């Protein structure tokens, strides 16, 4: 250690100057550190604010996604329910269609069954032969001919012709 009593005035003023310069340097370093600390605090606040903002955006997006998923699930549920309903309605329609077609076929076969003049006819060739024979008998130009009877024969013949030709 230095003995303060033995230091000369010149050395003492150098030491004082050194202490002064060191004190100024430390003060400047302290100010720079304080400025850096303030800048760091500002950056920290800014980063925290941005982090909060991003977190809020993320929460909002997450909530929106959750709502969208719930809505999607509800839409899928509605579509599935409607699809099942459409399937049951289609089955019902097919049953009604089959019943309708069966009734229609029954009505057609009832309407097309030989009534009076074409009994026993079961093919197109026999139908034509019987028609020619009947027209010879019931033609209005014949002695026993009748217009109304011939109209009825023609109607029955045309119906049976459609049945055998299809």
Secondary structure layout:
Layout: H1 9-112, H2 124-138, H3 147-165
Describe the structure.
The protein has 166 residues and is mainly α. It folds into 2 domains: 7-84; 115-166, no CATH class. The protein has helices at 9-112, 124-138, 147-165. Helix 2 packs antiparallel against helix 3 (147-165). It is rod-shaped. The model has no long low-confidence stretch (mean pLDDT 86).
At a glance:
The chain has three helices and no strands.
Q: Give the oligomeric state of the chains in this entry, treating copies of one chain as homo and distinct chains as hetero.
A: single chain
- Annotation, overall tally of beta strands: 0
First-to-last CA distance: 134 Å
Mean pLDDT: 86
Going by helix content, strand content and strand pairing, the class is mainly alpha
Assess the beta-strand content as a share of residues: under 5%
Uncertain ranges: none
What is the N-to-C order of secondary-structure elements (H for helix, E for strand)?
Answer: HHH
If helices are DSSP runs of H or I spanning 4 or more residues, what is the number of helices?
A: 3
- Using only C-alpha atoms, the radius of gyration works out to 57 Å
The count of domains is 2
